[in-house]
Specification:
The chain is built from nine helices and 14 strands. It has about 250 residues and is of the alpha/beta class. α5 (about 175-185) runs antiparallel to α6.
Amino acid sequence: MSLTITTIPCLSDNYAFVLNDGTRTALVDVPEAAPILKVLDEKGWSLDEVWLTHHHADHVDGLPALRERFPDLQITGAEADRDRLPRLDRAVGDGETFRFGDAEVHVLDVSGHTVGHVAFHVPSAQAAFTADSLMAFGCGRVFEGTMPQMWESLCKLRALPDDTIIYSGHEYTEKNADFALTIEPGNHALQTRVKEVRDKRQRGVATVPSTLRDERATNPFLRADLESVKDAVSMTGDDDADVFAEIRSRRDGF
């Protein structure tokens, strides 16, 4: 049976995601409990599993309240980050898979924003839950890892099929889009997408998820190895990871 994926706005600019296959229900990240419980109640779903991408508070703080309502929850997260995550029932690592009903879930280590950050790729649903690694027009700040590590993680995500839908963790899209224009102001695909994003935000519509096809065409952090982007930041011929680091540094100060 095909998966239904529901995007749930949380806090001021976070997202959680609920997956339901008609029998079981899983949740990706728990910024806060109330809006998640509201959606579950509206749909008449229980909750069986939670998949945690990383340890930051705005991705895990709602879990205790969910445990009170659903005491048999199975919690999945990175073995590499076990000591900083809530208690795990299933610890996973890069390249491992697990099943959610009939769907196979692939685990990717996408460290950089944090060390131990993982993404969950569900090929049968053409979905990747990337949280604070790959975002719409952007990527997360490199808080714990290194710039080369973050670049490697983004390249891993970029290698997924073009039609993959990217479910990222925050509504940072409009500011990311404004920054992207400072790197590639002449990118026609970027100009078109920015207009669409601004229209959505004016109407209060979420810009997450996005497609990997659009990210490849417009996200400067995925394009750091292109000569045109290297030229744009005056780093012609430089190492790809160094160019990524320059773009990330510019975004940090934007």
